[in-house]
Specification:
Bound molecules: glutamine
Order of helices and strands: EHEHEHHEHEEEEEEEEH
Number of domains: 1
Family: Belongs to the glutaminase PdxT/SNO family.
Strand content: 25-35%
Organism: Phycicoccus sonneratiae
Oligomer: single chain
Catalytic activity: aldehydo-D-ribose 5-phosphate + D-glyceraldehyde 3-phosphate + L-glutamine = pyridoxal 5'-phosphate + L-glutamate + phosphate + 3 H2O + H(+); L-glutamine + H2O = L-glutamate + NH4(+)
Strand order of the largest sheet: 2-1-3-4-12-11-10
Keywords: Glutamine amidotransferase, Hydrolase, Lyase, Pyridoxal phosphate
Number of strands: 12
Distance between the termini: 14 Å
Pathway: Cofactor biosynthesis; pyridoxal 5'-phosphate biosynthesis
Largest sheet: 7 strands, mixed
CATH topology: Rossmann fold
Shape: globular
Structural class: alpha/beta
């Protein structure tokens, strides 16, 4: 059974722990460098990315997290977690740092202040036939993606149609939305499969 951590400095940690356990993993919280070293995969939850960034640095987690990501650790970032995995942020220059790893440019709060949150059904081939109910909460989107990035989902309706909201680059997976709040654990299942595959490749 793979051990998958949830970065637990801020954000909706509990829901991810539950979804990972449902997906067949042993889920643990991660707050210290030694805990970063002990996991087979890691979830970066939604929350407030500027706060998570500050706490990651305050808890001396930035260097160990960057090292493990560079070494191929599977990481799933949801919403604020997507922001943390981005190599580049749009309209940056606020002093906010990311962990990086994924060759994407991400725009925070991309859907505008007036649309605080919304839901949409998305069709994601990698998750089978049934659409996924995607819950967006002050969500980012991927504005540019490099060649190594596989686009998994785009917004299908409305003014933001075509914007990338789920993507994968080898062992790194990101979604703009929050699958942990819907009771549909297929995104977490996909991530657990990525972790299992990476363990097989390493052994
Ligand atoms: N707007 C938040 C940020 O910029 C992300 C929101 C979320 O994770 N639900 O960090």
């Amino acid at each position: 059974t793979p051990t998958i951590g949830v970065l637990a400095v801020q954000g909706d940690v509990r829901e991810h722990l539950v979804a990972l356990e449902r997906g067949g993993a042993q889920a643990v919280t991660v707050r210290r460098p030694a805990e970063v070293a002990a996991v087979d995969g890691l979830v970066l939850p939604g929350g407030e990315s500027t706060t998570i960034d500050k706490l990651v640095r305050a808890f001396d987690l930035q260097a160990p997290l960057r090292e493990r990501i560079a070494d191929g650790l599977p990481v799933y970032g949801s919403c604020a977690g997507m922001i943390l995995l981005a190599d580049r942020l749009a309209d940056g220059a606020t002093g906010q740092q990311t962990l990086g790893g994924m060759d994407i440019l991400v725009r925070r709060n991309a859907f505008g202040r007036q649309v605080d949150s919304f839901e949409e059904d998305l069709h994601i081939r990698e998750l089978g036939g049934e659409p996924v109910r995607a819950v967006f909460i002050r969500a980012p989107w991927v504005e540019e993606a490099g060649e190594a990035v596989e686009v998994l989902a785009r917004v299908e309706h409305g003014p933001a149609a075509g914007r990338i909201v789920a993507a994968r680059q080898r062992n790194l997976l990101v979604t703009s939305f929050h699958p942990e709040v819907t009771g549909d654990h297929r995104v977490h299942q996909l991530f657990v499969d990525i972790v299992r595959q990476s363990l097989r490749e390493r052994s």
